[in-house]
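Each record in this resource describes a single protein on a pair of labelled lines. An example record follows, reproduced without changes.
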Amino acid sequence: MAQKKGTCVLSGGSSDGLAKSIAGKIGARLITTEVRVFADGESKMRLGGRTAGYERAVIVQSLHPPVDTNLFRALCLISRISEDTRDVTAVIPYVGYARQDAEFLPGEIISAKVLGRMLRSAGAARIVVVDMHSERGLALLGTRSTTNVSAIPALARHFDGIRLERPIAVSPDKGGARRAERFALEMGCDLLVLEKSRDRRTGAVSIKTKKVGAVGGRDAIIIDDMISTGGSVVKAAEFLKKQGCGRIFAACTHALLADGAKSKIRRAGVSKIVCANTMPAGRGVASVDVSDEIARVLKRRRW
């Protein structure tokens, strides 16, 4: 009986750079995927190497837009590699549908629950995510088999290398207070938590905080798990400008930047947008690598 080899890392096309970096750091063989898209939108996938004989397999596929396409490709890869090994870990840097973790309005489907079932049914024994939107959503993926990696240390290291004027970490709402608090601890700076209100039907955002302490002339770093349309960051930046802040930065794990968010954020007075490399961020956005944090989890024998 042939001895099984170590670990292979499969890249599904949505996170190739991150997959390559992870493979190098855990000493695994990287297997890329060739994808052909037909006129009707179907994806045909072909592995760029043999997967038989590996003891463990790691799939790296972020579920950023087009979410459904990247999700289906992830499921295909997981299903295929599970034919060769039962020890399959799905690394999902950005989890599409993570925000649909509850029935906010009557009749809404909890899509995050469906996503968890699909990943496990396809053959994922373990799941690694980066800054999942909520503990509730994380539980829906499967608490015992899912590890949530934080990008906060990597983001803090980035800002440690920038000369800042009495920096202050800012959470745009109470929901993100713990995240911003951890960033402030990593940076050794002060923390400000704003009160945000969002209309569930229209999505409109407003800041309810009336007045804050002495922030005049200080550089502010707005911390969030993701920036989608940028509404929360824009409102927070406008509020901070009125308080007399110095430079304003926007830092997040996932930079979706939909619907012209990048331009809106810049117009609101944000000097720079910084994100993790959980998805392609595009030009004009600084990206920090989180492969060290992910590799550290994958190297553990039990987690």
